[in-house]
Amino acid sequence: MANLGLSDPADDTPAPPFKPNYADICAARAILQSLKLPTELVLQVMNHASYWLEVELTVHRQPGSYPPASVSPMKTSAATIQAHARLDFGLVERRFGISEDEKPKIREIEFVVASKDQGWASQQSQVGTYQTSSWTEVSITRTMPGHSTSSSNEAWFPGYSLDYEHPGNFRNSAERHGSSVITRPASAEHYPQSTEEGDAAWYLQGNRVVKGHGDPYRIVWAEGYYEGNEGSGHGEGFVSKLKDGDTLLIWARAKVCSIGPATSYFYPTTDTKVHLVGRLAMYSLRRKSNCSLRLLTRAHYLRLFFSRETFPLPSTTKWPPFEFPLNTYEAPLEHSRKLPILSLVYFGQHGPVHFCLLLF
Q1: Which residues on adjacent β-strands are paired with residue 83?
Q2: Alpha-carbon gap, residue 51 to 340, rounded angstroms
Q3: Closest to 298 (Cα-Cα) out of 28, 41, 8
Q4: Which helix (H) or strand (E) holds 206?
Q5: Residue 304 has pLDDT above 50, yes or no
Q6: How many CA atoms lie within 13 A of 172 on its CB side?
Q7: 75-86 burial, b for 16+ CB within 10 Å, e for fewer?
Q8: Model pTM?
Q9: Looking at the predicted structure, is the pLDDT value of residue 321 above 50?
Q10: Is the pLDDT at 34 greater than 80, yes or no?
Q11: d(Cα 265, Cα 255) in Å, to the nearest integer?
Q12: 184-187 — which CB contacts under 8 Å span 24+ positions?
């Protein structure tokens, strides 16, 4: 079985997650289009299968140059910029050889953040919880018309103020340097953020109280979906607002808050490290994929007879006619150790017809 690239059933070692490259994405899309599926359905199948290009974003952070977010009875709120990363689709296109007919779009973003609180609490009941007064946030900045990306996004790092009372105070500073700060939806506000702070940042992750460094926090945001722990923000509206050229700012936050019947005074020295991964869907500007048809010869079509999750198709009048009515479909992505398997099923007047596309 190893010669075929398949895993041994007796080997229970977890297979690493499959990460399609650009050629894999082109091949899968061409296969689906060869089945005369409408473009709208092809894109839904690809997205449902998370068949996206994974790109690691370059995070700019010079060790020792970013101040901690610290509060005291005289300074009850603090926000310091800890890192920044820019979305550059042009760089991605050049790195992966993406066709000029493609339009990348961020579908999901993953944050890996290593941060901690000040290491003590005035109330022992808070220890180990996320009832915290120190946390991380993320803002989106965008170059304003008439300004260059380099001058607007790099002017703050280093040499410009990185320390604010809260991210809302950063908005005027950013505009003076040629960038706008994208507005966070009101529904995404998360305690201990407050309305008075404005809407310049999304709550990313709370620090677990008095737990030191520990394992990094992993947070994944997508449209209508998130992954994280009970201290993670949900990122409502974040991914849908991202555009090519945007800069992400990671903030360390601290605040004197009232938790329970008493007020806890925290003096955080938050040490933050950040790793960012973006997952991009590829949208062809042409009706048909321009991928080489030679890739299709590497696919094997198998008839299967099993049932999986189904869900209704959206109504549309743009689709070409099918040989039989299409009522529901499914498209889960499964993996062997090395081979991605994309399965598809039609339900029509002639009963279910199942296909399995095995990409080599």
Answers
A1: 250
A2: 10
A3: 28
A4: strand 202-206
A5: no
A6: 4
A7: eebbbbbbbbbb
A8: 0.69
A9: no
A10: yes
A11: 8
A12: 184/237, 184/238, 185/236, 185/237, 187/236, 187/237
